[in-house]
Design brief:
Number of strands: 10
CATH superfamily of the largest domain: Tetrapyrrole methylase, C-terminal domain
CATH architecture of the largest domain: 2-Layer Sandwich
Structural class: alpha/beta
Mean pLDDT: 92
Helix content: 25-40%
Strand order of the largest sheet: 3-2-4-1-5
Largest sheet: 5 strands, parallel
Distance between the termini: 57 Å
Number of domains: 2
Strand content: 15-25%
Length: 250
C-alpha cells in the first residue's frame, strides 16, 4: 500500500534526531521539508532523495508531490521540525491522503519545548510547585477557543509553554498577570533551542518584554512561564519542595 512518512527531525541539533527518523530519511526517494527550520546537517542524511522546500510551495503543491510519488511506490517523507504532532499541520495532509488510498505513518521527534527545558537545565514539573504543563500559543491570526484564552489558562498557575508567540510577548505578559500569575513570576525565552546560535533570555513577567525587544527576537523561540524556572534554590525553597515528598514517604 502506498505510504507517506510524517517524520519529526527534532529541534535543530542533528544529534537529537531519532534513530528511526534517520533511517527513514536515509532511504527516502522524495523529501518535502519545512524550509530553513530543518538544519543542513539533517538534509545531508537524505542521501538519495529529491528534496522539495515546503516554504516555497502552497498546500496543494505539497499534497500533489506526496500523492504522486507515493502512488509510484516511492519512499516519501514529509519532514517536520520538532515533532509533527505539535503545531505540525499534519491532520489536513493525512486526511487528504486517505481517500487516495495512501497510508500515513507518523514518526515522533524531540520537540523544541523539551530542548528548551534541557538548555535551561530545569524540570518542568516539581513537587509542591506544579504537576501540570500547559502547551499553547497566543491568539493572533489563528483563533483559540474562549476557554483557552491566556488569562483563563493562567488561573491554574501551572508551567505554561508558548509556541509561535514570542512576537506577542506583551500580550502574553498582560494576560498572564490578569489570570493570576504574580508580576515577579520567572519567565524564560529560548531562541532556536539546540541550534548553534541558541540564545537564552530569563527574567520575570515585569521585565521580559523589554529584554526580548532588546534582543530583537521575533520568531523561532519558546516561552516558558512558571516558578520551575528558579534555577538556584535556597534552603527554604528546597524545604518547600521536599515537604510533599516526605509527607508521602512517612
Amino acid at each position: 500500500m502506498p505510504k507517506v512518512y510524517f517524520v519529526g527531525c527534532g529541534p535543530g541539533d542533528p544529534d537529537l534526531i531519532t534513530i528511526k527518523a534517520k533511517k527513514i530519511i536515509q532511504k527516502a526517494d522524495v523529501v518535502v521539508y519545512s524550509g530553513s527550520l530543518i538544519p543542513t546537517q539533517i538534509l545531508n542524511f537524505c542521501k538519495k532523495a529529491k528534496l522539495h522546500d515546503a516554504s516555497k510551495l502552497v498546500r496543494e503543491e505539497i499534497f500533489e508531490i506526496l500523492k504522486h510519488n507515493a502512488k509510484k511506490n516511492k519512499v516519501v517523507v514529509r519532514l517536520h521540525d520538532g515533532d509533527p504532532s505539535i503545531y505540525g499541520a499534519i491532520k489536513e495532509q493525512i486526511d487528504n491522503l486517505q481517500p487516495e488510498g495512501i497510508e500515513s505513518e507518523v514518526v515522533p521527534g524531540v520537540t523544541s519545548f523539551l530542548a528548551s527545558a534541557a538548555a535551561l537545565g530545569i524540570q518542568l514539573t516539581l513537587p509542591g510547585v506544579t504537576q501540570t504543563i500547559i502547551i499553547t500559543r497566543a491568539e493572533s491570526r489563528t483563533k483559540v477557543p474562549k476557554e483557552e484564552k491566556i488569562s483563563e489558562l493562567a488561573k491554574h498557575k501551572a508551567t505554561m509553554i508558548f509556541y509561535l508567540s514570542v512576537h506577542l510577548i506583551p500580550k502574553i505578559v498582560k494576560q498572564a498577570i490578569e489570570g493570576g500569575y504574580a508580576t515577579l513570576t520567572p519567565v524564560a525565552v529560548v531562541y532556536r533551542a539546540s541550534w548553534n546560535d541558541q540564545k537564552i533570555i530569563t527574567g520575570t513577567l515585569t521585565d521580559i518584554t523589554k529584554k526580548i525587544r532588546d534582543e530583537k527576537i521575533t520568531r523561532t523561540a519558546i516561552i516558558i512561564i512558571g516558578d520551575v524556572i528558579k534555577l538556584k534554590l535556597n534552603y527554604n525553597d528546597l524545604t518547600l519542595f521536599l515537604i510533599p515528598i516526605l509527607d508521602n514517604i512517612f
